[in-house]
Amino acid sequence: MENTDLELFDGYIADSLSLEDKSAFEQRLETDASLKKRFEEYKVIVGGIKISRANALKQKLVRQESKYVSTPSIKPVLYKIAATLIFVVAATFIVNQFTSEKSYEELYQEYYSPYPNIIDPVSRSEKNNSSSLFQLYEEQKYTEVINALEDKERTEEERFYLSQTYMAVGQFNKALLEAHKISTNSRFYAPSQWYIALIHLNIQDTTALTKQLDFIITAKGDYKKRALDLKENL
Amino acid sequence: MKKKELELELFEGLKAGNEGSIINVYDLYRSEFIHWCTTNYSTDEESAADIFQDTVIAFYYNIRNGLLRELSSSVKTYLFAIGKNLALKKIRKEAKMVMNDEVLELNAAFTNLDLFEESDRKKIVAELMEHLGEPCKSLLQLFYFDRFTMDAIADRLGYKNENVAKSQKLRCFNTLKKLALERFSQDDI
Question: Would the CB atoms of B180 and A169 count as touching at under 8 Å?
């Protein structure tokens, strides 16, 4: 597809064409069979891209839903939901064993979500012109975070969020190096161990991944359940 | 923080394309929605959770795609209206029966559920997206679903500038299209 085609189609769908261009395009669609065919193909492709993104978001929400299963303080009525979900997850797992195995990339998409900014979350109700590095991270201004942190001496918190930033932009080797430097007495130590496992998953280093998951499972911390789940899905 | 301020903050977060806000919306209204859905639409809890997940995604999509620019009602009102449409749609699909259309407010943010109109060919393209790999997958999703500008995508994915990201997008789109057309032609044989 020519760039002009794609730009024209994108503009038409986004309703950003001038009235004149829009009308000219609609007239061409009626007379130019080749253009009409390409536009129909374009709409199918874009529809597929949207489904793919909706599926990815759905997986994140399904994962979020599963967190309610292990919350001890939930009301009795919700235990039923929890029990149902456990059954669904278990059944899905068993079915998957006999049907299809997920690729490492799929598993990564399923398990990875950026760690939230817990240092100083952005408050949109407060007017503040300058954002902290952590707020820049939250706002996904990753280049700015990297530029500000890469060449300076970093605190534990900065180290952790720089590692997260590298992961978000796909620089996994740098993310791994940074995550390994988080000290054991840091509050970010446990999450950094989980993200180290996810980096190994992404770069498909099976040996290191298994070793890391075993380490997390043995440590019996907050990430044990997730590590067990992931290990079972490998 | 007052409920109204919280809702506004969540809405602004969704408008900014913040995935954390999607999760926050889910957590905030989940229990209430599931209770409401199971009570009013005779769904089981699992189905109600499934509907709510689709609801939150549709709400986010409608905001990012400019169908809902300002909050004229509460976030809860929008969510429950979308949820109602989706619940009815699911019931109709499962029951395979014709029900009288309930009159809902004719607001695009409530009624636009095209996202869930899945043709076989679109599903194939969605499958192929998994084979496309990164950065193409994220780039195309961020542009066509989340509606980020090319400038914002360049910043987010670490491209030098908007033009580099735009060229990459064209390459990614063409690769996906080629894969899709090959697959469609195989299926037609």
Answer: no
